[in-house]
Design a protein that fits this description.
Shape: rod-shaped
Number of domains: 1
Largest sheet: none
Radius of gyration: 29 Å
Strand content: under 5%
Length: 86
């Protein structure tokens, strides 16, 4: 079941149980509302984690780029030193 459909079903349950007065129905309504809130919090956490992973990927790519540039620069400088010594 996809997230949108799950959220719609939870909303339906909250509306359905909201008008009933029996204690059992109130408990079910509270549980449905809590499930809905937990789902929203979980979705926010997943989104936050995805953003963190995206940022980490960018950082790693930059570090690899910088490492390769440093290697090229070191090779160039070593070659210059060898030419001077020769």
């Amino acid at each position: 079941m996809d997230e949108t459909r799950l959220e719609d079903k939870l909303n339906e349950l909250v509306k359905e149980f909201g008008g009933m007065m029996k204690p059992q129905h109130r408990k079910l309504a509270i549980l449905a509302k809590q499930a809905q809130e937990n789902h929203k919090r979980l979705q926010k956490s997943v989104n936050s984690l995805q953003e963190s992973l995206d940022y980490l990927r960018v950082c790693i790519k930059y570090q690899l780029f910088d490492l390769e540039a440093t290697r090229r620069e070191n090779k160039y400088l070593r070659d210059m030193l060898e030419e001077k010594e020769a």
